[in-house]
Amino acid sequence: MSEQRAGWTQGLYHAVLWLIALVFFAPVFWIILAAFKSSGDLVSPEFRFFFTPTLDNIGKVLAAPNFNIRLTMSFVMSIGSVLLAILIAFLAAYSFSRYRPTGTNFIMFLLLSVRMVPAPAVLVPLFLMYSALGWTGSFLGMLFFYVMFSIPFSLWILKGFLDGVSLRFDETALVNGGSRLHAIFRVVLPQVKPGLIAAAIFNLIFVWNEFIFNYILGGQTTTMIPYIFATGLKQGGATDWTFIAALSTIYVLPPIVMIYLFQKYLLVGMTFGTVRGEV
């Protein structure tokens, strides 16, 4: 009887989890459906689950001015800045984890506090600095900006993972004639692969969705997909909801696929490596 009750409890628990997941996924599902509806079906006061799908909305987005440039820039900025940030953050995290300079905990707090500051609070100083340096509208300027904002969070995650990797790995590599770089990249790096992937995904999502700095500091050739949401919503003086739905569908697909493929690393990354014992 107890086993049967446990089975019912587990089944009810899973049903509740599925219900919660479906509720949170419902807006995304609605957007995807709306991307294939005509304007009449979309703005109809009655929700139409059955309708004649159309690809005109997707075609309108693909034919939008500079859409290919914005999409390419989203991928280039996201992937390029995160790869650079992960490399720099990994080396810095190794230094903090292995050499533990004085005030390490306070330094880590200061680095992470950069991400706690609201974006509008630093927008004006950054704009003045970029204007003085001539970096506004510059590809490298925007790339360095996203690298700068991605490093603190990556450093925080990777240090947690590196703290869980025994010093014996480093010592064994050095005793056997390996260089410090060999110990870092060939011995220690594979041990923190989940942390690297988790940090990369978190920061990819941040850069992919970032708008305000890209809109203010970026130029015509460096703005990304979110820029289109701000400038392409009105068609003929009215809001083009089919355009918004189609663009949103195209926009959310890469993060959804990425999160689905690497979801186990996201779960590990949210623990910052602290659930691990020393390896």
TrEMBL record:
Key word Phosphoprotein present in the record? no
Span-the-membrane segments of this chain are 12-36, 75-94, 106-133, 139-158, 241-262
Kindly give the membrane topology term recorded for this protein: Multi-pass membrane protein
Predominantly, its location class is membrane
Is Transmembrane among the key words of this record?
yes
Query: What family does this chain come from, according to its entry?
Result: Belongs to the binding-protein-dependent transport system permease family.
List locations, semicolon-separated. Answer: Cell membrane
Q: Which GO terms describe its biological process?
A: transmembrane transport
- The ABC transmembrane type-1 domain is annotated at 71-262
Which ranges form a coiled coil?
none
Listed name of the protein: Various polyols ABC transporter, permease protein 2
- Keyword list, A-Z: Cell membrane, Membrane, Transmembrane, Transmembrane helix, Transport
Check the record and name the PROSITE patterns matching this protein: ABC_TM1
Q: Which GO terms describe its cellular component?
A: plasma membrane
